[in-house]
């Protein structure tokens, strides 16, 4: 280990969470850190998801860092290309490139109880770090269901890919396409590919609630004003944030109040879908908000086109070139596109992290993800997750949650510095348990638990380990500083071996 490079902090991932952590480290005066990224560029999910029509469903001025406002967003809801360009801009503005280690996939991270540091094996070598910040994100590893006959379909020349791994070399013109899934990606993909595809068959396991996407170009005058008077952009962001904070109680305490929103969503559907049979297929049977409310103004019109069929059943198998739904409906296809989400409650990075007791994070979380304040896990000293368990949002911007976690990270490192050299903080199991009991108790009243749906928010045991059952203001207060009473202070027992810096 004496030959390995050693750093104060190793950040895993270069999406919003990883870049945000890197910026915060530099602003705290910490420059001894690296950002380990498995791909060849920054951007995270906004690099990986480049499918046709890809855009954000959170307003641009709210879906950006408060410390890096962008007065030149071109649209109220910006597309993937502009968000990725923004992240590249943040990387350059805050001089993060010297810290980037592109093409360094983390294969394993092991806690060394003697040295009180992490040994990190990457695809390009090994290094050690006092602290690891995992910012791999919940939307980074695509999930494709195990469909009988899918492999044979590919071997026979059929095309298969996930929305997050779009094959831009494959021409969909005139092709018979099966779109599997009706989540946030699928409702953007279908309108984008419908005009060129010969036939689109949408396999819908569960109908989503869809509201109009009030998107428009941001005028040159608005952008000029935001550049000349930055407070106007700050005020715009504040207004967008405040509206969403006021909506939270309907999701978390009073789901019955969402009935009016359901009526608006049904009116939005009826405006484009005139066929009663199709409208029946597309009408959800659960309370709006139980799954993420989707935003689109062209999804329903695309489904009404003559070259689009909606199958109100999930894809069950593939026989030759025939895609067969669970209800027996068949469709001849040339390509199958999966918009089936990601490994959210079973994040693959957890299988690659070995803690103080010699078990992986995945083993520690076998009964469900649990962390202290969405950040640290019992048995994993000096390990912090950005966008960890129960930090997701159902109606607002994840950047708000990320920035709160960056506050917690900064104070965590200050506490370590105050405690002295060769020290680690390990969350007490009692503190982790108490925090999660409070979170899960609050979760019972939410629309995500009581709304009558089965969503990707829930783990295999039916627990919502994904979302935060409160306002972003509450989370900001809860993560403002580290409470040392919730941690065990671990000190080294022997002198540390020298390492390369």
UniProtKB/TrEMBL annotation:
Under Pfam families, the record lists: FMO-like (PF00743)
InterPro entries, per this entry?
FAD-bind_Monooxygenase_sf (IPR051209), FAD/NAD-bd_sf (IPR036188), Flavin_mOase-like (IPR020946)
Recorded E.C. number(s)? 1.14.13.-
Q: Which residues form the signal peptide?
A: none
List GO molecular-function terms, semicolon-separated. oxidoreductase activity
Q: Which UniProt keywords apply?
A: FAD, Flavoprotein, Oxidoreductase
Superkingdom, according to UniProt? Bacteria
Question: What is stated as this protein's family in its record?
Answer: Belongs to the FAD-binding monooxygenase family.
Q: What is this protein called?
A: NAD(P)/FAD-dependent oxidoreductase
What is the organism of origin for this protein?
Answer: Streptomyces ficellus
Top-level taxonomy: Bacteria, Bacillati, Actinomycetota, Actinomycetes, Kitasatosporales
